[in-house]
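Data card: per-record layout.
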Amino acid sequence: MQKPINGRMHGMMDYATVATTAAAPRALGFPKQAENLAYGLAAAYLGLSLLTDYPLSAKKAVPFKGHGATEVMLGMALPFLPKLLGFENDRRARNFFLGLTALTAVTALLTDWNAPDADQEHGDFNVRLNKSRSESRDMAMA
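The structure for this 142-residue chain is written out next.
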């Protein structure tokens, strides 16, 4: 199946997510723990986006597939953070981070991690995203 999100579109979504995550604490009145998490995530995500090997970055230091692997790991941690940081009873903050989890998952699933407009500097970086195990094994043997 052809994935509809290429590197440029993924970058646009990343920067929109950074802006939304940075604006959410004040707009939604988050408690301090959720506010700190949102600002920390926005800053880290901005840094990752600026350094990712895709069209909208400032420096192509992080392979696009490495960016994807980071998003997958972050997406797996996000739903647990409201409980771990003690703001699970604040519906606005908790639901924002659960929504961010869903957005991260859907974006990762719909992104073509092998898009021709990404990984211009890291074309030989092989991470198993969007590939079957047999395809990855065949690439490793080649």
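Known properties of this structure: The CA atoms of residues 13 and 20 lie 10 Å apart. The chain has a mean pLDDT of 90.

See the next section for split statistics.
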